[in-house]
Design goal:
two-stranded antiparallel sheet, two-stranded antiparallel ribbon, mainly alpha, 20 helices, about 475 residues
């Protein structure tokens, strides 16, 4: 019998919600540890059925190894962010159990998104995740920037919802169904596809592009990343991106796999725009969180390249890149969460000046992570980019590979600028010493992972190749 992890997660959430009502002192800490236990138990149920395949709830959802694997990655990233929340000093407005409960709702939405096998179930799951994220972004009610970021994110998210629904209605109007299997069957039976079907798919792609911050639909990202509480930005830059990529892959490879010529051109445009805007936009940033926003846009462009061929190797490369991207991003945001001067959070790039003199270990760990983000060999980021470039070149998309290399060189400049600031600039005002041993240990482990991946890359290749088989078995 398959025990559906999302149902277990939802029941666990309700139990924690009831318990939180009776907690008085340190309620957010207790709820935080209960949430970690729930995530750990849910992870067990996800991995238990990782090699099973079954369509459930009248084919509205599907359980397969691809979905289970990415759900596992989402749970790991969410669990790490919640652990960050517990070990760092948060502002008073975030020290409430509601913050963690809303985070759990977002995680449930993401897990449902990954398993969606119908446009209707996908829409409901997407909205469950989005509504929770709107609240998290604006959770710091005493901070004007957080409120402003929440409003911007809500407006753009609402626009994305409308676009998604319009695209879905066009597809339903043509096919008479929103189920992925029936869409795939309809497209296979047609010699000439209706133009409205392609337009409907374009609308859905635009909506999902807004969710993953792909240019030119990235306009909300820098402001929201900067305005939201840092712990929320850490969450926003990892787990939701993985969930939406899972949706993009499942949607394009299975139901719309027959029209790769049409959607492949759109993905190429999104990829090129994201890499160019992401690399150039970061050059003049003076805030570390805004710089990370443009860095995310650049990485999104790189990942989208591997989706263009729609091949099994391309999806494998995406899964590997997402794992490496997760470790790099969380490493940087863990440091940002601990960036303080006189017990006040700071996020300016100039605040990194002379970090090596006071925190040599942390500076070394950050340097490794930044070099990895820049794609310097033999670090994890280099391996991820090399795999994607190999896929692109094997499919004769040489112009895409050239743009990727050029934008990577530009991006390397602003990562190396950060390293230069840490090691060679004189500090104006030194940051507070990082006295949090858990943060130091986690940063060391994340940087060590990025440093040692070169020793066992075949493990990730075999793992990710095996989980993508379930997607292509349907075709």
């Amino acid at each position: 019998m398959i025990f559906i992890p999302e149902i277990f997660m939802s029941l666990g959430f309700l139990v924690i919600l009831i318990i939180s009502v009776f907690l008085k002192k340190n309620s957010h800490i207790i709820v935080g540890y209960l949430s970690l236990i729930l995530i750990f138990l849910t992870q067990f149920f996800v991995l238990k059925d990782i090699f099973l395949f079954e369509e459930i709830f009248n084919s509205f959802f599907v359980i397969d190894s691809f979905g289970s694997f990415l759900k596992s990655i989402i749970l790991i990233s969410a669990g790490l962010v919640i652990y960050f929340y517990l070990i760092v000093k948060n502002e008073i407005s975030l020290q409430r159990p509601e913050f963690l409960l809303i985070t759990l709702i977002a995680i449930i939405g993401m897990m449902l998104m990954v398993s969606s096998n119908d446009l209707l179930s996908l829409f409901v799951s997407l909205e469950l995740q989005s509504l929770a994220l709107y609240i998290l972004v604006s959770f710091s009610k005493d901070d004007f920037n957080s409120s402003e970021a929440g409003v911007k994110y809500f407006v753009i998210g609402s626009l994305s919802t409308c676009i998604f629904l319009f695209g879905s209605s066009l597809i339903y109007g043509i096919i008479g169904s929103t189920n992925f299997s029936e869409i795939s069957q309809f497209i296979s039976d047609q010699y000439n596809l209706p133009t409205l079907l392609i337009i409907g798919l374009i609308f859905i792609l635009v909506s999902l592009s807004l969710k993953i911050s792909a240019a030119p639909f990235h306009m909300w990202t820098p402001d929201v990343y900067q305005g939201a509480p840092s712990i929320v930005t850490a969450f926003l830059s990892t787990a939701p991106k993985i969930a939406v990529f899972a949706v993009l892959i499942r949607l394009l490879v299975y139901p719309f796999g027959e029209i790769i010529i049409d959607w492949g051109k759109i993905i190429i445009i999104l990829s090129i725009a994201s890499m160019i805007i992401g690399s150039l936009g970061a050059l003049k940033q003076d805030d570390l969180k805004r710089l990370m926003a443009y860095s995310t846009i650049n990485h999104i462009g790189f990942i989208l390249m591997a989706l263009v061929p729609g091949s099994e190797d391309g999806i494998t490369a995406i899964c590997i890149y997402l794992i490496f991207y997760l470790t790099m991003n969380l490493g940087v945001f863990l440091f940002i969460l601990n960036m303080r001067r006189d017990q006040i959070n700071v996020t300016k790039i100039k605040d990194l000046s002379g970090l090596y003199k006071t925190e040599p270990v942390i500076a070394g760990c950050l340097a490794i992570i930044f070099f990895s983000m820049a794609g310097i060999p033999p670090l994890a980021g280099f391996i991820g980019k090399l795999l994607v470039l190999n896929i692109v070149i094997d499919n004769n998309l040489f112009f895409l590979a050239i743009i990727a290399v050029v934008t990577s060189v530009i991006a390397a400049f602003y990562y190396i600028r950060l390293i230069k600031s840490m090691f060679f600039d004189s500090p104006t005002d030194e940051l507070d010493l990082l006295t949090n041993p858990q943060s130091k240990l986690l940063m060391t482990l994340l940087s060590f992972f990025n440093l040692t991946v070169i020793l066992y890359p075949q493990f990730f290749l075999n793992l990710c190749a095996s989980i993508t088989l379930s997607l292509f078995a349907l075709k």
